[in-house]
Every structure is written in C-alpha cells, then in structure tokens.
Amino acid sequence: MYRRIHEAIIQSPPIDDFDIFKELKDQNFFESQESIIALCTHLQELMKTIEELDENQLKNEFFKVLQISLWGNKCDLSLSGGKTISQKTNLINSLEDLKPFILVNDMEHLWSLLSNCKKKREKASITRVDIVLDNSGFELVTDLVLADFLLSSKLATEIHFYGKTIPWFVSDTTLHDSNWIIEQLKHSNHKWVSKCGVDWENHIKMGRWVYLDHIFWTLPHEFSAMPQVAPDLYATLQKAHLILFKGDLNYRKLTGDRRWEFTVPFHEALNGFHPAPLCSIRTLKAEVQVGLQPGQGEQLTASVPNWLTIGKYGIFQFDGPL
C-alpha cells in the first residue's frame, strides 16, 4: 500500500516528493514539546559533568537514556490508526514507574559490550553503533538524545542511522524527517533545545553521525534474507560494533513474524541473522515475542489478555557475544 501511494505521487509533479503523513508527524513533534524540552535540558545539563562521572554514574545515565529511547517507541501513528500519540509529560520522571513493564532487560549486556570497546579502543580506532530507526517525531528525538550521549560518553565514536527511503507505516523516519526535526530544534527559542539542534547538525557535518537509507527496509523480506537480497546492506551492518533495532516492525522482521513459543531463544528466532551484536528496543504492539522466562507469557496473558499489542510493555533483547 505504501509503495502504491508513493508510485502515484512520484508520477505527479510538482508533488513528487510529497509526504502524505508529514502533517501527522509534525503534529506529534509539536504536541510533545514539553517532554522534548525536558529531554534536551537533561542532556545538556548532563554534558556539563559527563567527563567527571565515575563508571557507575555513567552506567546509570546510559541506562536512563536507553529507557527514554524505549518508551519513546510508544509514539507510533501506525498503532493509533493515524490518530496523534504524543508525549505530553516529562518522560524522565516516569522511568522508575515504568521499569516493571520491561519484560526482557539486557541493558547490562549493552553496557558491558560498549564499555569494553571504550577501554580497549586505540587512539585512532572507531566504535560504531548503528541505529535502525522507527518513528519520527518524539521517538526520533529520544533516539538522537541516545546517540549524542553515546558520543559524549565515548561509548561510541560514530553513529550510523538507517531510515526509510519513502514515507512508510505513517510515522516511520525518512531523511527529510530527520533533517526537519534537527532544523526545528536548532531554531527553537529554548536555549537547550536549540543547543541540541546545533550540536546534532554539527555531528552530521563532521561525519560523526551518518544517515543511510536502503530499499531493503521497505521490502517484505524478513531480515534473515538480507545476505541474499541485500548483501551490500548486510556487509555494512557487519562493520558495526552494535546494532540497535528500534520498534515493533523491526522486531517482527528480526523474528520472521512467526508465532513462536514465548520461551524460544532470541538467537534461534533470528534464523541466522547475526551481522553483529544486536539489540531490539521495542514496546510490544504485535503478537510475537520470544526469549521470555518459562510461564512469563502465560502469566501475562492471564492478567492482561492483550499485553502483546497495547504498547504497555517493553524489551531490551540482546543477541551476540560479549
């Protein structure tokens, strides 16, 4: 359907680059201003002391920005049938209350991997984190906050972002969305929001942030087919030290969108897709979930029958050697 819409538009100059979902995405961004201001303020205040933090303090801040990115995934216009879902309250204040809703929590694995990379890194070497993006608007801001923290903390030296080549699943991120949001932040009349926009634009200019898109992300294939269908993309991902897959559709494609038993290991459900250490960061909105403890899924079904699809629960699910 999305490709059909795009095909119709590109044959209709002068609207051949028109995004029919742009108004909805922009509305989500503008309605989330209070929380965006809080996030940018938190990040800029953190930057002032980040080099003075001890290892435990840095780890705690890392976990905080990871959770912000996770719960940002609730803002999904494809889940709401296009009705705006914005983040109108300060998400940072809710993180402790939301912790019980994280069903799989592999944040320790992410810290172990990236902190080891940082300790072993030679002066000229690179630690690259790839982020396969999901929604524009508020969620994209949370992902950019995470990416900036990774650079500032030296847990990574380079971030590669992957978005969609065409407007997709209502609120999915395109290059135009990413550039537009950074431009909006840069021209904000709030000093810390504006500072984030300026810093993030500079990361792009300096090559520390790289935005890439590829037609594979809008094809119907599960990710285990990538080596055959898009070997160039697979080879690119193999160069990453860590790949973060945001959102529900990416999880469905990671696991082949099959009705797995809840206890099937994540590694097995990936069906041979192991380009680099990877982690799914998602709030659950589809009837697929693996890697749970015995009985965990059944207990959830008994207490919250629609737990798989309501976006209330989240995961950090890691696969790879440490």
TrEMBL record:
<keyword id="KW-0378">Hydrolase</keyword>
<dbReference type="GO" id="GO:0032259">
    <property type="term" value="P:methylation"/>
</dbReference>
<keyword id="KW-0464">Manganese</keyword>
<dbReference type="GO" id="GO:0051998">
    <property type="term" value="F:protein carboxyl O-methyltransferase activity"/>
</dbReference>
<dbReference type="GO" id="GO:0016791">
    <property type="term" value="F:phosphatase activity"/>
</dbReference>
<keyword id="KW-0808">Transferase</keyword>
<keyword id="KW-0489">Methyltransferase</keyword>
<feature type="domain" description="Damage-control phosphatase ARMT1-like metal-binding">
    <location>
        <begin position="1"/>
        <end position="300"/>
    </location>
</feature>
<dbReference type="Pfam" id="PF01937">
    <property type="entry name" value="ARMT1-like_dom"/>
</dbReference>
<dbReference type="InterPro" id="IPR036075">
    <property type="entry name" value="ARMT-1-like_metal-bd_sf"/>
</dbReference>
<keyword id="KW-0479">Metal-binding</keyword>
<protein>
    <recommendedName>
        <fullName>Sugar phosphate phosphatase</fullName>
        <ecNumber>2.1.1.-</ecNumber>
        <ecNumber>3.1.3.-</ecNumber>
    </recommendedName>
</protein>
<comment type="function">
    <text>Metal-dependent phosphatase that shows phosphatase activity against several substrates, including fructose-1-phosphate and fructose-6-phosphate. Its preference for fructose-1-phosphate, a strong glycating agent that causes DNA damage rather than a canonical yeast metabolite, suggests a damage-control function in hexose phosphate metabolism. Has also been shown to have O-methyltransferase activity that methylates glutamate residues of target proteins to form gamma-glutamyl methyl ester residues. Possibly methylates PCNA, suggesting it is involved in the DNA damage response.</text>
</comment>
<dbReference type="GO" id="GO:0046872">
    <property type="term" value="F:metal ion binding"/>
</dbReference>
<keyword id="KW-0533">Nickel</keyword>
<dbReference type="GO" id="GO:0006974">
    <property type="term" value="P:DNA damage response"/>
</dbReference>
<comment type="similarity">
    <text>Belongs to the damage-control phosphatase family. Sugar phosphate phosphatase III subfamily.</text>
</comment>
<dbReference type="InterPro" id="IPR039763">
    <property type="entry name" value="ARMT1"/>
</dbReference>
<dbReference type="InterPro" id="IPR002791">
    <property type="entry name" value="ARMT1-like_metal-bd"/>
</dbReference>
<keyword id="KW-0949">S-adenosyl-L-methionine</keyword>
<dbReference type="GO" id="GO:0005634">
    <property type="term" value="C:nucleus"/>
</dbReference>
